[in-house]
Write a structure and sequence with these properties.
The complex is a heterodimer of chains A (about 90) and B (about 130). Chain A is mainly alpha-helical and about 90 residues long. Chain A is built from three helices and no strands. Chain B has six helices and no strands. Chain B is flat. With about 130 residues, chain B is mainly alpha-helical. The chains are: A mainly alpha (about 90), B mainly alpha (about 130). At the A-B interface, helix 1 and helix 2 of A face helix 1, helix 2, helix 3, helix 4 and helix 5 of B. Chain A: Pfam families: ATP-synt_C. Chain A: One of its GO terms (cellular component) is proton-transporting ATP synthase complex. Chain A: Belongs to the ATPase C chain family.
Chain lengths: ~90, ~130
């Protein structure tokens, strides 16, 4: 498998795993929050704020994975050198 | 004001402060593309955070939670998350694909919210530790 094919595979798998994990994590957090508020409606404010911070952290992880995946495909820092090496061989 | 409210108001303010400071520093000290990356990343993530806050506050009002099906609230929040994520993805894709910004600058800009949450947590922790010490 050549280098660029491997990069595309890596990017696809990376963003797939990241989105899957973040979706599961957010779903679990939301599930807990909804149950907590349903049992104790007065805690709504506190739970929402804590959830907001947690979800923002989880979401940023997924965005990082997306950026790294896009860098791998479109802006690989060593792409030019690798092409030179491949052409030389 | 309790700990959560204090933290969230700090994060909301510090997001914008950090955004302005990091962007200005970027335009002064780094090449234009790198600074543009910081600006776009920080703007994207800050706006994203505000939309997330808006969605959560609307979905998690106590009366809404009690009246609606828990599954429907979950679905609404998750669907909005995926819409936001798709829009962010398209914007980031356009920025990187057309080589408008430097990817490392973009990553730096995207870290604004994470950094402000970490700073808020560190401040609250130090406050707690000093309170216990006194």
């Amino acid at each position: 498998m050549d280098f660029f094919t491997a990069c595309v595979w890596a990017a696809g798998i990376a963003i797939g795993i990241a989105a899957f994990g973040c979706g599961i994590g957010q779903g679990m957090g939301l599930n807990g929050a909804v149950q907590g508020i349903a049992r104790n409606p007065e805690s709504s404010g506190k739970v929402t704020v804590t959830l907001l911070i947690g979800l923002a952290m989880i979401e940023s992880l997924c965005i990082y994975a997306l950026v790294v995946a896009l860098i791998l495909i479109y802006a690989h820092p060593q792409a030019a050198e690798i092409i030179k090496t491949v052409v030389a061989h | 004001m309790d700990i959560q409210q204090r933290m969230i108001s700090f994060v909301i303010k510090s997001n914008w402060y950090l955004f302005v400071i990091v962007t200005l520093l970027g335009f002064i000290n780094t090449p234009f593309k790198f600074a543009l990356g910081i600006l776009c990343g920080a703007l994207l993530v800050t706006i994203n955070f505000h939309f997330l806050r808006h969605t959560l506050y609307r979905s998690f009002k106590a009366e809404n939670v009690l009246s609606a099906e828990p599954r429907s609230i979950l679905n609404v929040v998750l669907v909005k998350y995926y819409i936001r994520f798709a829009i962010s993805g398209i914007v980031i894709f356009a920025l990187i694909n057309r080589n408008i910004v430097e990817p490392i600058g973009l990553l730096l800009g995207l870290s604004v919210v994470v950094v402000s949450i970490m700073v808020a947590t560190a401040l609250e922790l130090t406050r707690l530790i000093f309170k216990e010490a006194v």
